[in-house]
User: Which sequence fits this backbone?
């Protein structure tokens, strides 16, 4: 069965979760973006790759700590400003798929503050859009065909990415990210996000 991205349904699922779960979902989607599109599809020295690595690590620390730390808020502001600058300087579209990796990191950072469901969904949307970007470049897909849209949705990279988003959602729903099992739960979800498209 062909899966499709439905942001409204995902947002509804995320709204039913607690803030720590939403933070973990956003961090995991940002991790998957970085590992599978920032590393595999772009040059390792690509603009924003180092910043995104730092942001993903910070977002996982936010899952561990929760919100409310004034020092963390200052760090988030610095990271957000840095990512905004990278995106605004890309007037020629040279970032390619990294634009989605950076945007995903940006929304994951925003989610790290309050565990906001809207920002968490935007990380997943950028993960989906990164896969869509890669599928659009596939020479096997005839963009002149009236069935090009269906071929993109059905492409392996898009279908695997949608399965990763659903898998992260399901893992996050089954965990609280609090208490004595927190580090194990983070490790499980982070491991899945890292494996993601390779699984």
Assistant:
């Amino acid at each position: 069965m062909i899966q499709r991205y439905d942001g409204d349904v995902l947002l509804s699922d995320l709204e039913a979760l607690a803030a720590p779960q939403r933070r973990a979902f956003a961090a995991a989607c940002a991790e998957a973006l970085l590992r599978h599109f920032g590393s595999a599809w772009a040059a390792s020295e690509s603009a924003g790759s180092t910043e995104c690595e730092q942001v993903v690590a910070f977002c996982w620390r936010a899952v561990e700590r929760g919100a409310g730390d004034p020092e963390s808020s200052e760090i988030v502001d610095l990271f957000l400003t840095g990512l905004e600058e990278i995106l605004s300087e890309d007037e020629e579209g040279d970032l390619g798929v990294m634009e989605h990796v950076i945007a995903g990191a940006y929304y994951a950072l925003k989610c790290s503050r309050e565990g906001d469901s809207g920002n968490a969904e935007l990380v997943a949307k950028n993960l989906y859009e990164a896969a869509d970007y890669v599928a659009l470049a596939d020479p096997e897909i005839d963009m002149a065909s009236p069935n090009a849209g269906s071929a993109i949705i059905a492409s392996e990279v898009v279908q695997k990415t949608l399965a990763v988003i659903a898998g992260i959602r399901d893992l996050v729903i089954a965990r609280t990210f609090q208490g004595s099992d927190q580090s194990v739960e983070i490790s499980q979800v982070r491991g899945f996000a890292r494996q993601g498209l390779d699984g």
Q: What stands out?
A: The first helix runs from residue 7 to 15. The chain has a mean pLDDT of 91. The CA atoms of residues 55 and 79 lie 7 Å apart. The radius of gyration is 16 Å.
